[in-house]
Amino acid sequence: MGKAWNLGNALDSTTDGAADETLWNNKFPVSKPMFDTVKVSGFDTVRIPVSYMDKIVLENGKYTVDDTYMARVKQVVDVAIASGLYVVIDVHNDGGANVDGMWLDITKTGTEFNNIKNKFSDLWTDIAVNFADYDQKLIFEGFNELNNGSYTTAPTTEQLSNVNTLNNAFVDAVRNAGGKNTDRVLIVAGYNTNIDYTVSGFSKPNDTASDRLMLSVHYYEPDDFALNENGTDEWDEDIETIETQFKKISDFAKSKNMPVFVGEYGAIDKKNIDSREMYLSAINVLSNKNNIVTAYWDNGFTGIYGFALFDRETNSVTESGETIISAIMG
Predict the structure, then answer these.
(1) Residue 30: its pLDDT value, please?
(2) In which domain, by residue range, is 58 found?
(3) How far apart are CA 5 and CA 300, in angstroms?
(4) Could you tell me the sign of the dihedral formed by the alpha carbons of 123, 296, 84, 71, in that order?
């Protein structure tokens, strides 16, 4: 999979429970030239977050995806593969904390949660059936950052269990969809893609295929530097913490016979390119050391506090993107 890049704020965009790829800051539907630029820049994989929301329809007791929307998702996947990239697609803001219209809610219990699980299973069945003939360049990721609505409140035992239940439902749905899904690589995550909660609360799903599961976590630490717009613009060069966390998740995943996928990481632009360069370089050096695949989060926003490596209007590398891509590739 090499180094990976996220097509963020595109197919994952939602407003008031509606999904559409141009609802947020990226007003230009993605096309093959964008993926060509990503590939030429050295990336071998693109993660394409996808939100479904109002595009999920219920007919005869089963949930499926609206045909027009599914056709668009397939079109984007097709042009990415045609550019020579591996592709990861997920179910993204359907489980997004505090997102209007989110329904993939691990705080629900009893019948309510069982209905959510069944809807989630139906959704992945339909996705997998539509992609059943695609080869192993296409990878599925069950969901994004499932949490209890708070990034700081610890999960309950039941919430951790619900995440594991959904992982099992995802794997079962894909495997039972037939075709090349029977041994497709699948990515599963622990609670909130958090390293510590994953190590303490994740249970590997049962799988009819052998050695075809990857474990996903995200890394935006320290938050004050990486995400907080009002935080510091200088990284404290705490390489030891990154190394400790990466070794922790790597050792845990090895015990489960699973490789690790850091599905998102990055640091917003605070006009601090030198600090960002050092930070992103350290993450990738240490991920290489621990045999971890990394996927840089790019929201397509080129202004202050953005993540963009590429200008999605011109399909070109930004000035800061050149520096960061070099740091990622090493």
Answers:
(1) 95
(2) 4-329
(3) 11
(4) positive
Name residues whose C-beta falls within 8 Å of residue 300's C-beta, 6 or more positions apart in sequence.
7, 8, 9, 10, 25, 26, 306, 307, 308, 310, 312
Catalytic annotation present for 221: no
Q: Tell which residue, 17, 192, 5, has the closest CA to residue 93.
A: 17
From the candidates 112, 158, 221, 264, which is the catalytic residue?
264
Q: What is the CATH number of the domain that holds 285?
A: 3.20.20.80
Catalytic, 264? Answer yes
User: Contact 198/217 with Cβ under 8 angstroms?
Assistant: yes
Catalytic residue among 21, 112, 141, 145: 145
Confidence class of residue 145 from pLDDT cuts 50, 70 and 90? very high
User: What does the pLDDT look like over 223-273, one tens digit per residue?
Assistant: 999 999 999 999 999 999 999 999 999 999 999 999 999 999 999 999 999
Tokens of 26: 């990226």
For the chain, how many structural domains are there in total? Answer: 1
pTM of the complete model? 0.97
Average pLDDT, the chain: 97
Q: What's the one-letter identity of residue 278? A: M
Comparing C-alpha atoms, which of 264, 267, 271, 265 is closest to residue 303?
271
